Structures are given as structure tokens and as C-alpha cells.
């Protein structure tokens, strides 16, 4: 009987967690339930045989199995687009992978308290990206990363002590560069134009919004995603949005971001590429993203080794092409989406607090 009660409690929790993860409420308590879909799915798969084995009354057992089936179906459908069964959004580039129209990007949240500078420098040198984006950089990190500027003369250094500092280094010329606080004071984004060797240009948005935590609203993060999506959509240049978005690839807010921006997710049809948390293999999620215009085709995407942070670095390489005619774009935003965006932006304007720092982890 005790086992049956425990199984019932866990099943009820999973049903609650599954349902609330779809609620359109800008609060960390709601948003975090969208993160562990893989974990909820795995846990439910364990519960099913235990329920058959340990719950004797047939009506009780079948009721629990019905609830577990709902969890399994909803969670599986939510993450199915990141399995090979789904058609890929990003087209594979068929041309010269080292042509003058290509660009490689390495994105790495260093974790500000991490001081393993040497491994970070070694990894970047080995990967040899055209553009390296570092997040959570304080003054110490900005100084330590300076050797990487050799061969990458175009840079933006904006260190901060609140875990939102950013450093950008580029082999390619950068123009019209701005560091902007789009939503929250103390949470910068870097917006710049990257000039490729063939003189084509693209717009790069480097972003690192707040994390959603259970005891605080997520209005700042949600509004930053919406704001960047609109900027990318309105920009005539091909756009890349890259960074630690503090949102999982399958969440409602990330899908909303795609419908607003019409940018492609190279993970779709290819895999999860979970980047956080390096410390716990059983609790990892895809938080570090790159979204791109359909005129860009994918050459390579890989998760790089753990080098001391709680995030894995990500490496992407793309080619800028002349056309997006064959691309399968995300569905366009509808009136409901636009209304939700307006509500998210209103909520963010009413926020009266400092940005969430790394102190939330303590």
C-alpha cells in the first residue's frame, strides 16, 4: 500500500508538472517545469512497470497507467522535433566548407567563478573559430582571454561583475557595433555587423538573458527573447542570434521566439546537444543556442568538451548563401502570439528589481 501511495504521488506530480509547463505565466516557478522533459519522460518510463507490479487494485493501477500515458505522450511529442525522425530545419551546405562565405562561431558561458582560463584558451585555439563569444566574463576573464585576440583583431569587451559580462572576438571585420541593455539594467547584449571575406554581411546578436529561477518572475528573460526576435525579424540583413538563452530548445518561449523571428534552429531533426549542466549527467538541457536566417546553411555543429564551466561550449559553422527558397521556415506568428508578446513586454516594464545574479545558485 505504501508503494502504491508513493507511485500515486509521483504520478500526480508528473501530471501537474506536465500541465503547468504550458501555462503562459512569466514566472520562474512555471518556466522551470519546461526544462526537464527528458527527465520526466525517463522517470515515467520507470513508473509504468513499477505500477503494474506494485499496485494491486485494478482500477487504481489502470488510473495511474492512464495518467502516466498522458505524461509520456505529451513529453515525447514536445521533444520529438529534436530527434532524427523530424525533418531538419537548417539545410546542409553543399558548397566549399572553407569558402569565403563561411563563418564559424564558438559560444561559451565560462561561469564567472570558474578560473580555468588555460583550458578555455587551449580549446578555442584548437577549435579555431572565426568568432568567439564568451559570457559571464568579469575583468579577470577579460584579461585572461586577451591572448585569443591574436588573429581576431576585431573585438568587443564588456566585462561585468554581475555574471552578465560579455567578450566578443572576431577574425572578420565588425561594423556598427553596439552594446545595448535591451530590457534589464545590467544585462547587456552585443549587436554587430559581421563582414565576411567575400564582402557579404550578416547581423550578429549575442545574448545572455536572465535565468528563470523558481522564486522570481521570468519577465526579463522572456521579454529579451521577444525583443531580439523582433529585431532580427525587422533587420534586412541575414541574422544570427547566439548565446546562452537560459531557455530550453523545446519550451513555449523558444518556439515563440522562432515564430516571431522566423529564424531556424539547427538542432531540429539533429539532436538535443544538451549544454547545461556539465556537473550532472542526469540533469542536462540545451540552453546554449544559435538561431539563424534561412539564407545561412549549416556546415557543422558540435558540443565541445567540458573545460571547467557548468556549460559546455558550442561550435557552429555556417555558409551565407544567396537564397532561402528551399528552407522550411518556422510557422509565422499569429494574433495570439503578438498579443502574448505585448503582454510579456508589459510585464517586463513593470519589473522593479536587479537582474538575477549567480547568487541564486547559493
Task: Briefly characterize the structure.
This protein has 362 residues and is an alpha+beta fold. The chain is built from 9 helices and 11 strands.
How many angstroms separate the termini?
38 Å
**How would you describe the shape?**
globular
Helix content: 25-40%
Number of helices: 9
The tally of strands reads: 11
Poorly predicted regions:
none
Spatial sequence of strands, sheet with the most strands:
3-4-2-1-11-10
Structural class: alpha+beta
Q: Which percent band covers the strand fraction?
A: 15-25%
Spell the H/E element sequence: HHHHEHEHEEEEEHEHEEEH
Taking all residues together, what is the mean pLDDT?
94
Radius of gyration: 21 Å
Largest sheet: 6 strands, mixed
Features:
362 residues; alpha+beta; 5-stranded mixed β-sheet; 11 strands
Strand and helix layout:
Layout: H1 2-20, H2 28-31, H3 37-54, H4 58-79, E1 102-109, H5 117-127, E2 131-135, H6 139-144, E3 154-158, E4 166-170, E5 173-180, E6 189-195, E7 201-207, H7 219-234, E8 239-244, H8 252-261, E9 288-292, E10 296-303, E11 314-320, H9 335-349
Parallel strand pairs: 1-2, 7-8
Antiparallel strand pairs: 1-11, 2-4, 3-4, 5-6, 6-7, 8-9, 10-11
Helix pairs in contact: 1-3, 1-4, 3-4, 7-8, 7-9
Amino acid at each position: 500500500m505504501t508503494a502504491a501511495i508513493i507511485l500515486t504521488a509521483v504520478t500526480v506530480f508528473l501530471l501537474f508538472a506536465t500541465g503547468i509547463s504550458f501555462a503562459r505565466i512569466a514566472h520562474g516557478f512555471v518556466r522551470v517545469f519546461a526544462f526537464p522533459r527528458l527527465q520526466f519522460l525517463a522517470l515515467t518510463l520507470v513508473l509504468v512497470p513499477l505500477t503494474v507490479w506494485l499496485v494491486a487494485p485494478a482500477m487504481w493501477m489502470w488510473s495511474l497507467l492512464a495518467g502516466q500515458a498522458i505524461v509520456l505522450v505529451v513529453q515525447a511529442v514536445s521533444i520529438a522535433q529534436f530527434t532524427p525522425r523530424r525533418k531538419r530545419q537548417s539545410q546542409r551546405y553543399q558548397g566549399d566548407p572553407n569558402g569565403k562565405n563561411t563563418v564559424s562561431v564558438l559560444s561559451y558561458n565560462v561561469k564567472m567563478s570558474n578560473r580555468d582560463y588555460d583550458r578555455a584558451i587551449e580549446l578555442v585555439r584548437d577549435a579555431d573559430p572565426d568568432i568567439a563569444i564568451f559570457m559571464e566574463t568579469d575583468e579577470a576573464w577579460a584579461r585572461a582571454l586577451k591572448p585569443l585576440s591574436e588573429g581576431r583583431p576585431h573585438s568587443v569587451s564588456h566585462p561585468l561583475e554581475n555574471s552578465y559580462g560579455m567578450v566578443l572576438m572576431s577574425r572578420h571585420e565588425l561594423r556598427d557595433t553596439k552594446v545595448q541593455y535591451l530590457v534589464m539594467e545590467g544585462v547587456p547584449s552585443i549587436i554587430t555587423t559581421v563582414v565576411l571575406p567575400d564582402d557579404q554581411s550578416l547581423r550578429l546578436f549575442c545574448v545572455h538573458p536572465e535565468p528563470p529561477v523558481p522564486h522570481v518572475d521570468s519577465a526579463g528573460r522572456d521579454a529579451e527573447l521577444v525583443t531580439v526576435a523582433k529585431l532580427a525579424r525587422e533587420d534586412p540583413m541575414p541574422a544570427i542570434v547566439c548565446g546562452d538563452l537560459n531557455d530550453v530548445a523545446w519550451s513555449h518561449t523558444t518556439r515563440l521566439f522562432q515564430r516571431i523571428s522566423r529564424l531556424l534552429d539547427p538542432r531540429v531533426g539533429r539532436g538535443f546537444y544538451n549544454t547545461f549542466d556539465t556537473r550532472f549527467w542526469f540533469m542536462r538541457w540545451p540552453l546554449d543556442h544559435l538561431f539563424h536566417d534561412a539564407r545561412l546553411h549549416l556546415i557543422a555543429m558540435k558540443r565541445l568538451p567540458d573545460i571547467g564551466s557548468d556549460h559546455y561550449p558550442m561550435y557552429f559553422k555556417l555558409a551565407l548563401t544567396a537564397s532561402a527558397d528551399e528552407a522550411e521556415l518556422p510557422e509565422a506568428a499569429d494574433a495570439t502570439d503578438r498579443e502574448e508578446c505585448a503582454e510579456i513586454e508589459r510585464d517586463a516594464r513593470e519589473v522593479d528589481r536587479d537582474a538575477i545574479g549567480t547568487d541564486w545558485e547559493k
